[in-house]
Design goal:
By secondary structure, the chain is mainly beta. It has three domains: 63 residues; 95 residues, Immunoglobulins (Immunoglobulin-like, Sandwich); 50 residues, no CATH class. It has two helices and 17 strands. The strands form six sheets. Strands 9-8-11-12 form a four-stranded antiparallel sheet, with no helix packed on it. Strands 3-2-4 form a three-stranded antiparallel sheet, with no helix packed on it. A three-stranded antiparallel sheet has the order 6-7-10, with no helix packed on it. It starts with a strand and ends with a helix. One of its GO terms (molecular function) is beta-galactosidase activity. It comes from Lactococcus lactis.
């Protein structure tokens, strides 16, 4: 969210550099931050080596155009996790498979829960685990149903280190004889290219504008969008 590159300093101490304008940049500032008020300074460059890789057909602007967040993490926390859903041939049973990683996996356990609205439908433990779902409610372009996933990282006594909640969909995508199908039904892709841009604010796109774009696309019966030519704001994918 900074184009096209930047250096930053915290409390007068150098913190780091990044030049990918469309992906998150994370820095550990534990040794730079202090209790109370802190001073963050950012020096943004309009052009950098990364500019050559981001040379697509769009307006060329610079500056900070996405959110800047301060994140506190405990001594042990989830580094990353992935979810894969497998449906059987009849689409009446699904396995929701989890693979997760923590900073310290030896002295921790992970609780994995799956909810349908507020109803708990499955629970297990482990960094490599799966939950079975009978007669799952399937995600589609017309009815994008989502389940709620809850991960809780704990020590051996049950004290909580870290908690994450995400929404996931269960679906089966295939190409059969040249035909794209979702959950066994043929799908005709009707889509549009989309840039993160507004006439008033350039690259800064609010959630209100995102929702307006989604409603406009649905009114025109679009079921797909190409995020040209870069990763969009993470909130867009959630919406």
């Amino acid at each position: 969210g900074v184009g096209s590159a930047f250096h930053f300093w915290l409390n007068g101490e150098y913190g780091g550099y990044s030049e990918d304008s469309r992906l998150p940049a994370e820095f550990d500032i534990s040794n730079l931050a202090k209790e109370g008020q802190n001073c963050l300074k950012v020096l943004v460059f309009r052009w950098s080596k990364g500019t050559y890789f981001e040379d697509q057909d769009m307006w060329r602007m610079s500056g900070i155009f996405r959110s800047v967040n301060l994140q506190w993490l405990p001594d042990n926390y989830l580094l990353d996790f992935s979810i894969k859903t497998d449906l059987d041939e009849d689409l009446d049973f699904a396995n929701v498979k989890l693979q997760a990683y923590a900073k310290n996996m030896d002295d921790a356990c992970l609780e994995f829960k799956l909810y349908d609205d507020e109803q708990l439908i499955g629970e297990c433990h482990g960094f490599d685990a799966e939950i079975g779902v009978v007669n799952p409610k399937l995600w589609s372009d017309e009815i994008p149903y989502l389940y709620r996933l809850e991960l809780t990282l704990m020590d051996r006594s049950g004290a909580v280190f870290h908690k994450e909640t995400k929404k996931i969909g269960i679906r089966k995508i295939a190409i059969e004889k040249g035909q794209l199908k979702i959950n066994g039904k043929a799908l005709l892709v009707r889509g549009v290219n989309k840039h993160e841009f507004t006439p008033e604010h350039g690259y800064v796109v609010s959630e209100e504008v995102m929702i307006k774009d989604i409603k406009l696309m649905k009114e025109h019966n679009f079921n797909a969008v190409r995020c040209s030519h870069y990763p969009n704001d993470s909130r867009w994918y959630e919406l």
